[in-house]
Design brief:
two-stranded antiparallel ribbon, elongated
C-alpha cells in the first residue's frame, strides 16, 4: 500500500492537481457534494447496498488531506452525518464521546489511492480491468444524485474566487493541501522504491506507535519520513481500522498533526525531534535517524512542474537534488539527512468509559506492610465515578480527582498548622519553634497550591500533552521543584512529564512524596499499605 500511496501522489502531481492551491469550487464539491454522496452510497443497510466509489482528482486530493487529520475528520463526519443516531442533543459532546469508542462510524475511501480524470491516459492509479466499471458506476450514481452538477471540475468555475471559509470542524482543508503538496518530494528518494527499506519503515512505525503509549515521552513525537509514509498510509487505508488498531494496541487516540513547519533549531519541532531521537535510543538501543529516510531539504524549482516525476525517474540532476541556493532551501540545507518530518503525533482526551481509563483496585492486602496496589505510571489512585482504583492521566476526570485530593491536603495542612501553633504557644520552647514550623508548613502549602494550579491547567488544556500557558512565576517555581527532586527518588509534576504517586483520594499528592510513609498526605500512601484499604472512602 505504501507504493500505491506514492504512486497516487505522483500521478496527482503529473496531472497538476497538487501544484496549485485547491479552488473554492473544489472545496464546495468536496464538502457539499462528495461527502453526502459517499454517505448515501457506502453506508450499508438492509435496503441500500454499498458501492465502491472512485472520486475525481480534485476531490480525491482534498479528501486525502482531510483524512490525514483522522480524528478531526472523524469528528466532523460524526457531527454532520451520525449525530442523529444518538439521543444526546449536545452534538459536540456526542462527537467527542464517539471518538473514544473502540469502534467509530466513518466515511472511508473504498479505493484510497485512486482517482479518475476525464482523460485517464496519464493516470496510472487505475487499471481498467479492476477499476473501469467502478469509475463508470461512480459517475452514474453521482449524476443520479446531482443531475445539475458536473462530475469533473468545471475549469471556469474553478477560476472564481470566494472569501468563504474552507474550514470543517475548525480544520482548514485547503491549507492542509498546501502543506502536503511537497510530501511527495520527501518520499521520492531512491530508498523509497526499495522493498527492504519499506518493510523496515513498517517495523519502525510499529515501534513509533508503541512509544506514543509511554508516559515519559516528549510533548509530542516527531517521525522520520520513512515512518511518516507508513503512518499516512495506515490512516488513509482506513480510518476505521486505524482507530481500532490504536485502541487495541495502545488504548489511545493518536491524532496526526502537520501544522508545525518551523524547522528553526531549538524550536518546538526541532526540540521534540531531538527528544524523540533520544527516547528511541533509550528504549530500542539504536539510532533513530535512518539513511535515506530523513528530511531531503526543500524541493528544487523543477519539482513544481508536471513533468518533475518523469525527470526524477530519468535521473535529471535538476529534478533529484534539493534547492540549496536561495530562500528556505539555502537556510535549511544543513538539516538535510539530520531531522525528521514536519508532522507529529499527539493524543486526545479519553472518556472515563474507555478501555484503559480505569483499573479497579485489588482487594486490600491481608499481610502487614504489603501493598496490594502498587504505583502505576500514568495513573493516580483514588475514588471517582468508577469507584476506587487507578485513573488514567489521559482523562480529564482524573484531574478532578487529583484536584480534590490536593484540596483536602491543603485544608489538612492549614488545619494542622492552626492547631499546632495554638499548642506550641503554650510553652516557651514551643514559642521558639513556631516560626520555623510555620515557615516549613507554609512552604508545603504553597507547593501543594502550585500542584493544584498545574493540575487545573492540564485539566482545562486541549489534550493530555498540549502546551500549557502558565504564569512565568509558576514556571520558575516548577523548575525549582524539578531541580530539587532530581536524583532524589521523589516525584515532581510538570508540563513535560507526569510523575503522579497518589493514594487515598490523592492523599500522597501527585506532586512529590517525602518517602515511605505516604508523603504529605500521611499514612495512606502507596508505600505504606493504604492503597488497598478503605482510605478512599473517607
Amino acid at each position: 500500500e505504501a507504493k500505491n500511496h506514492i504512486n497516487f501522489l505522483r500521478n496527482l502531481h503529473i496531472n497538476g492537481i497538487t501544484l496549485s492551491k485547491p479552488s473554492y469550487e473544489s472545496f464546495r464539491r468536496y464538502s457539499d457534494l462528495w461527502l453526502p454522496f459517499v454517505m448515501n452510497n457506502t453506508i450499508s443497510s438492509s435496503e441500500t447496498p454499498t458501492h465502491d466509489l472512485i472520486p475525481p482528482a480534485d476531490i480525491a486530493w482534498l479528501w486525502h488531506c482531510h483524512r490525514l487529520a483522522p480524528y478531526r475528520y472523524a469528528k466532523y463526519i460524526q457531527r454532520r452525518f451520525f449525530s442523529k443516531d444518538v439521543k444526546n442533543n449536545d452534538e459536540a459532546k456526542t462527537a467527542d464521546e464517539n471518538m473514544k469508542k473502540k469502534e467509530i462510524k466513518i466515511l472511508d475511501a473504498s479505493h484510497p489511492f485512486t482517482f479518475q480524470m476525464k482523460d485517464n491516459s496519464n493516470n496510472a492509479t487505475l487499471t481498467d480491468s479492476i477499476h473501469g466499471e467502478i469509475c463508470k458506476r461512480t459517475k452514474e450514481l453521482f449524476h443520479e444524485m446531482y443531475p445539475d452538477e458536473c462530475f469533473f471540475l468545471d475549469k471556469n468555475k474553478a477560476l472564481q474566487t470566494s472569501t468563504s471559509s474552507t474550514k470543517l470542524e475548525g480544520f482548514d482543508v485547503v491549507d492542509s493541501c498546501e502543506r502536503q503538496a511537497s510530501f511527495l518530494w520527501q518520499v521520492s528518494g531512491p530508498n523509497f522504491s526499495n522493498d527492504a527499506f519499506l518493510l523496515q519503515g513498517a517495523e519502525n512505525y510499529s515501534k513509533f506507535v508503541r512509544l506514543m503509549a509511554k508516559r515519559d515521552r516528549p510533548q509530542f513525537l516527531v517521525p522520520t519520513y520513512q515512518i511518516d509514509l507508513m503512518w499516512h498510509t495506515h490512516m488513509l487505508s482506513s480510518i476505521e481500522k486505524y482507530h481500532a488498531d490504536n485502541m487495541r494496541n495502545t488504548g489511545n487516540i493518536l491524532e496526526h498533526d502537520d501544522s508545525l513547519n518551523d524547522r528553526t533549531e531549538g524550536g518546538t519541532l526541532d526540540s521534540n525531534f531531538q527528544a524523540t531521537r533520544k527516547l528511541w535510543s533509550d528504549v530500542y538501543g539504536v539510532e533513530y535517524k535512518v539513511p535515506g529516510g530523513m528530511y531531503r531539504g526543500e524541493p528544487p524549482v523543477d519539482f513544481f512542474k508536471c513533468d518533475w516525476p518523469e525527470k526524477a525517474l530519468r535521473g535529471d540532476v535538476n529534478a533529484r537534488h534539493p534547492n540549496m541556493e536561495d530562500g528556505f532551501g539555502y537556510a535549511l540545507a544543513h538539516l538535510i539527512g539530520q531531522v525528521g518530518a514536519s508532522s507529529h503525533g499527539r493524543t486526545v482526551w479519553l472518556s472515563i468509559n474507555d478501555a484503559g481509563a480505569f483499573k479497579a483496585a485489588n482487594p486490600k492486602s491481608t499481610v502487614r506492610n504489603v501493598n496490594a496496589n502498587n504505583r502505576e505510571d500514568g495513573y493516580i489512585f483514588g475514588k471517582g465515578d468508577k469507584g476506587i482504583g487507578f485513573y488514567s492521566l489521559q482523562c480529564r476526570d482524573t484531574y478532578e480527582i487529583l484536584i480534590k485530593g490536593l484540596d483536602k491536603m491543603i485544608a489538612k495542612k492549614k488545619s494542622e498548622k492552626g492547631c499546632l501553633v495554638c499548642f506550641l504557644s503554650l510553652t516557651i520552647i514551643g514559642c521558639l519553634c513556631i516560626s520555623a514550623y510555620v515557615k516549613n508548613t507554609d512552604k508545603k502549602i504553597s507547593e501543594l497550591q502550585d500542584a493544584k494550579l498545574l493540575a487545573t491547567a492540564r485539566r482545562d488544556s486541549a489534550n493530555p500533552s498540549a502546551d500549557l500557558s502558565l504564569p512565568a512565576e509558576l514556571e520558575k517555581r516548577l523548575e525549582k521543584y524539578r531541580r530539587s527532586k532530581e536524583g532524589s527518588g521523589g516525584y515532581y509534576y510538570d508540563d513535560g512529564a507526569y510523575y503522579t504517586y497518589a493514594a487515598a483520594c490523592g492523599a500522597t499528592g501527585g506532586f512529590w512524596t517525602d518517602g515511605g510513609g505516604g508523603g504529605d498526605g500521611g499514612g495512606a500512601g502507596c508505600g505504606g499499605g493504604g492503597c488497598g484499604g478503605g482510605g478512599c472512602g473517607g
